[in-house]
Q: What sequence folds into this?
């Protein structure tokens, strides 16, 4: 009974609120889809196009502000992120994107969105102006590293790399950083089964290599090579080693310390078996040194 009285009073208040001040209520509704970072530098505006439940939107807001802090604390770049970033929550399982002022997130409904990965691109910069003029290796490698460390989509990158080694299918590092060649590895124009496999493999290589670099030589050194032009010169300058030397130590580290993913782990990786079945259709030349 007491509850009913409280409810009645509450409804009266609500109605009074509605009749006397409707614009404020509207403004409040809008504000619910905005998240501001703790330092006040960036405002995220969420477009719930997929119409996911309010709890999911709230979770995304929390993840955004938390990931913002984590990304900003991990490495510093000279890129200044956009003050306003639109976050589009979309239906389906297409590939998510992180642009300058827009992030398209698929899979939000079931928590399968790579929010930290895309936010890493958007906050730290990519190329000169969100492009591939400075390659893909450090940018995609770091994005997967960050998602693994702070995000929801965990990926056993070293174990998958070991599987590629066991198959005798490792893409040479100098091809992955070659600006004349890397588009067809990381971003092939025609995505048939082999194009898909090449792209996914390139991402795994980048992620495993960058994770190795960070774990072995630290974030301070990695910060000096992230999204930098002329990567092979940067390697020599920062690590005192050329591309082949770094590649050699990385691959022997993987070979010595890791096994292929267990069956259960493989089953959890999205599209893993379609990747495996497509690897043989890749042009052998890609793996040749
Ligand atoms: Zn990415």
A:
């Amino acid at each position: 009974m007491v509850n009913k009285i409280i409810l009645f009073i509450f409804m009266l208040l609500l109605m009074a609120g509605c009749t006397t001040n409707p614009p404020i209520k509207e403004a409040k509704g809008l504000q619910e889809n905005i998240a501001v970072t703790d330092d006040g530098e960036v405002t995220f505006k969420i477009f719930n196009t997929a119409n996911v439940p309010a709890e999911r939107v709230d979770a995304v807001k929390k993840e955004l502000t938390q990931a913002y802090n984590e990304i900003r604390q991990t490495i510093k770049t000279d890129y200044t992120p956009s003050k306003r970033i639109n976050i589009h929550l979309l239906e389906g399982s297409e590939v998510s994107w992180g642009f300058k002022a827009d992030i398209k997130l698929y899979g939000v409904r079931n928590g399968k969105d790579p929010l930290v990965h895309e936010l890493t691109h958007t906050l730290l910069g990519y190329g000169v102006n969100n492009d591939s003029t400075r390659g893909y290796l450090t940018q995609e490698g770091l994005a997967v590293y960050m998602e693994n460390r702070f995000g929801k989509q965990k990926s056993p990158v070293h174990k998958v790399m070991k599987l590629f080694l066991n198959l005798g299918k490792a893409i040479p590092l100098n091809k992955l950083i070659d600006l004349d060649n890397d588009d067809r590895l990381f971003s092939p124009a025609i995505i048939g089964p082999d194009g898909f496999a090449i792209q996914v493999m390139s991402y795994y290589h980048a992620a495993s290599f960058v994770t190795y670099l960070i774990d072995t030589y630290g974030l301070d050194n990695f910060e000096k090579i992230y999204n930098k032009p002329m990567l092979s010169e940067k390697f020599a300058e920062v690590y005192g080693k050329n591309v082949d030397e770094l590649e050699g130590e990385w691959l022997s580290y993987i070979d010595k310390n890791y096994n292929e993913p267990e069956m259960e782990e493989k089953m959890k990786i999205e599209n893993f078996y379609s990747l495996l079945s497509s690897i043989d259709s890749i042009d052998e030349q890609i793996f040749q040194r």
Summary: The chain has 14 helices and five strands. Residues 117, 121, 140, 143 surround zinc ion (CB under 6 Å).
